[in-house]
From TrEMBL:
Alphabetical list of PANTHER family matching this protein: NICOTINAMIDE MONONUCLEOTIDE ADENYLYLTRANSFERASE, NICOTINAMIDE-NUCLEOTIDE ADENYLYLTRANSFERASE
Main subcellular localisation: nucleus
Protein name listed in UniProt: Nicotinamide-nucleotide adenylyltransferase
Pathway given in the UniProt record: Cofactor biosynthesis; NAD(+) biosynthesis; NAD(+) from nicotinamide D-ribonucleotide: step 1/1; Cofactor biosynthesis; NAD(+) biosynthesis; deamido-NAD(+) from nicotinate D-ribonucleotide: step 1/1
Enzyme Commission number, as recorded: 2.7.7.1, 2.7.7.18
Region annotated Disordered, chain positions: 288-310
């Protein structure tokens, strides 16, 4: 009696190509949406994801260096354990067509896939369901790895534009690899598939994944916000935001918020002054001084020694108050210069 065979789901590696200038939370969200959608079919099991930034030879205005873009992708992926950065495309000395990127990774994965197979020869097993059987050249293998191109609706729409893609490249991408397309609001990818002969021919290999939560984040809008000194918090991963400010990318303002200015003022106070005095209801630091003077020996004037008297009454100490006043005016001017409207 033959044992029933069950077909294992095809293992899928998702690859997203793009400038990632910079990488946004939406780029990461695309991987999660695609994995959920494919896994629910029961035919596929997404096992890995790859982000492949373009090289510096991709002619696009405002494109940051590949080294910066790759580093930002690496930082963004710290919160994802199944998607990784691949720098092969970014290291090329020319712009690399999408098909060649897919073929490169397909070749690498075939090597990994073949090494994962375990061959067992001349394995005998007695009395299986009352029958003696000998297993010759038995090979336990993992299901085949398959690459799919992960993209947004804009890339799918570009396939339908005459002359933008080589017909032979497009046909290989659609037939050999396939697409996983994340839709966006006001976009109808099925319309483009219907209207284009090539897309229509391979529509069974195109997976449309709707994004039910409205999310219109784009790298273009992020760069514009950074140029204007607007906050991009919750649109990018925090390490990516910090990296952008640290390296002053996209003409970003150096000061992210008044928090930076407050830290600077706090640092100035703590290192310039030590003893606390109250001036107009504000806690400031008075300069440290040493004195051998003592309070009056007159019984009528004998009282507890108070260091603040020296600050208020000693002519030698009065210049300190002037310095504090000047410092406060400078701080006030600095605060006015860095209002929330001008800081990111």
């Amino acid at each position: 009696m033959a044992l029933p065979l069950t077909q294992s789901p095809t293992r899928v590696v998702l690859i997203a190509c793009g400038s990632f200038n910079p990488v946004t939370n939406m780029h990461l969200r695309m991987f999660e949406l695609a994995r959920d959608s494919l896994n629910k079919t029961g035919r596929y099991q997404v096992v890995s994801g790859i982000m492949s930034p373009v090289s510096d030879f991709y002619s696009k205005k405002g494109l940051e260096k590949a080294s910066h873009r790759c580093e930002m992708v690496q930082l963004a992926l710290e919160s994802m354990d199944w998607v990784r950065l691949d720098t092969w495309e970014s290291e090329q000395d020319k712009w690399t067509e999408t098909l060649h990127v897919l073929e490169h990774h397909s070749s690498k994965l075939r090597t990994v896939d073949s090494n994962a197979n375990i061959s067992l020869k001349n394995v005998s097993k007695d009395e299986v369901d009352g029958t003696r059987m000998t297993l010759q050249n038995l090979c336990f293998t993992q299901p085949t790895l398959q690459i799919k191109l992960l993209c947004g609706a804009d890339l799918l729409e570009s396939f339908a534009k005459p002359g933008l893609w080589k017909d032979e490249d497009l046909e290989k991408i659609l037939s050999k690899y396939g697409l996983v397309c994340i839709t966006r609001e006001n976009s109808d990818p099925r319309k483009f598939i219907y209207e284009n002969d090539m897309l229509n021919k391979y529509q069974e290999n195109i997976f449309i994944v709707p994004e039910w939560i409205r999310n219109d984040i784009s790298s273009t809008k992020i760069r514009r916000a950074l140029r204007r000194g607007e906050s991009v918090k919750f649109l990018l991963q925090e390490p990516v935001i910090d990296y952008i400010h640290q390296h002053q990318l996209y003409n970003v303002n150096t000061f992210k918020s008044n928090k930076n200015l407050n830290e600077i003022v706090k640092f100035m106070y703590s290192h310039t002054f030590k003893n606390v005095v109250e001036v107009k209801g504000m806690s400031l630091q008075s300069s440290t001084f040493s004195s051998t003077e003592s309070s009056s020996h007159s019984p009528k004037r004998q009282r507890e020694f108070d260091e603040t008297d020296y600050i208020q009454n000693s002519p030698k100490r009065r210049t300190c108050m002037g310095d504090i006043g000047g410092l406060m005016r400078k701080v006030k001017s600095a605060r006015m210069a860095f209002t929330p409207e001008t800081c990111v």
